[in-house]
């Protein structure tokens, strides 16, 4: 005699919604691996594009040297191939900047709230143009730096620039300008999510000014004053603008918090008054 047992349907385990973005250490490592993998794919695709644009881009890089009265020379048989790879990788890094900049920020935001994660695209949309602007500005400054150094060449002599020394100098200059432009975006982003306050920024402004000057001096090849001031000037301006934005945002956040606290206090006091209010109970008339 068989019993008809009711079969309980299998319920699919659904992942609980994690609006606050809390992750374990293992999940962070997996997230970092996925973000890195996506960035490397974008870099590889950009590098492939760099191989096709190698001749045009190398001509653009060498043009400031020729305009300053110098010439770029290859000193080894394998140098053209090595330079092709370096130029293609640099192009890939610049072309893939929208992807890896977003991936860096997206790796930070899982630890934040759902509302704050929605700002990722906005920050990436601002950071990428600033990075490209920094690279373009460095290329604009490059001829002035070359004129300065080549102008120091003694008379009746000719300067021969080796490509192995020239390209690292150019790439370091371009990347330094581009990455430096990301600092204000990072400041604003950390302030928007409540990690960095304008009070902290203003309290440590001397250290920030020193670091900006140090970065500008390191990016300037050979201590070139023109390149140093060309990088430090925009950095100081963008740092001041980012600090002002953080200050205004902190004021708005504090005002909103005061309004919220006053509303919570009003609701709490109203609830307490309802509890403390005496209750009147009518006793029934008893007839003897």
From TrEMBL:
Task: List localization entries.
Answer: Cell membrane; Membrane
Q: Where is this chain primarily localised?
A: membrane
Bilayer disposition of the protein: Multi-pass membrane protein
Q: Where is the composition biased (Basic residues)?
A: 7-16
Record region (Disordered): 1-20, 265-288
TM regions (residue ranges): 40-63, 83-109, 121-150, 170-193, 205-222, 228-248
Function as written in the Swiss-Prot or TrEMBL entry = Part of the twin-arginine translocation (Tat) system that transports large folded proteins containing a characteristic twin-arginine motif in their signal peptide across membranes. Together with TatB, TatC is part of a receptor directly interacting with Tat signal peptides.
Q: What is this protein called?
A: Sec-independent protein translocase protein TatC
The source organism is Glutamicibacter protophormiae (Brevibacterium protophormiae)
Recall the taxonomic lineage recorded for the source organism: Bacteria, Bacillati, Actinomycetota, Actinomycetes, Micrococcales
């Amino acid at each position: 005699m068989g019993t008809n047992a009711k079969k309980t349907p299998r319920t699919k385990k659904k992942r609980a919604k994690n609006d606050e973005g809390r992750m374990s250490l293992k999940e962070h490592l997996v997230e970092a691996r996925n973000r890195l993998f996506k960035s490397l794919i974008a870099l590889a695709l950009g590098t492939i594009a760099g191989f096709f644009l190698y001749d045009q881009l190398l001509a653009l890089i060498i043009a400031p040297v020729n305009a300053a009265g110098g010439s770029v020379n290859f000193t080894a048989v394998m140098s053209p191939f090595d330079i092709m790879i370096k130029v293609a990788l640099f192009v890939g890094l610049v072309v893939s900047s929208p992807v890896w900049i977003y991936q860096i920020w997206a790796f930070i935001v899982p630890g934040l709230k759902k509302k704050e994660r929605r700002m990722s695209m906005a920050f990436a949309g601002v950071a990428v143009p600033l990075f490209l602007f920094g690279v373009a500005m460095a290329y604009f400054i490059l001829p002035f730096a070359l004129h300065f150094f080549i102008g120091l060449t003694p008379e009746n002599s000719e300067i021969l620039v080796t490509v192995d020394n020239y390209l690292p100098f150019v790439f370091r200059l371009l990347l330094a300008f581009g990455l430096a432009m990301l600092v204000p975006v990072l400041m604003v982003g950390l302030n928007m999510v409540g990690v960095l306050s304008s009070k902290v920024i203003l309290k440590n402004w001397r250290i920030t000014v020193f670091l900006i000057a140090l970065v500008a001096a390191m990016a300037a090849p050979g201590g070139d004053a023109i390149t140093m001031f060309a990088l430090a000037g925009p950095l100081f301006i963008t740092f001041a603008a980012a600090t002002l934005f953080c200050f205004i945002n902190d004021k708005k956040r504090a005002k909103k918090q005061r309004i919220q606290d006053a509303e919570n206090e009003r609701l709490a006091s109203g609830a307490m008054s309802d509890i403390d209010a005496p209750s009147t109970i009518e006793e029934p008339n008893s007839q003897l």
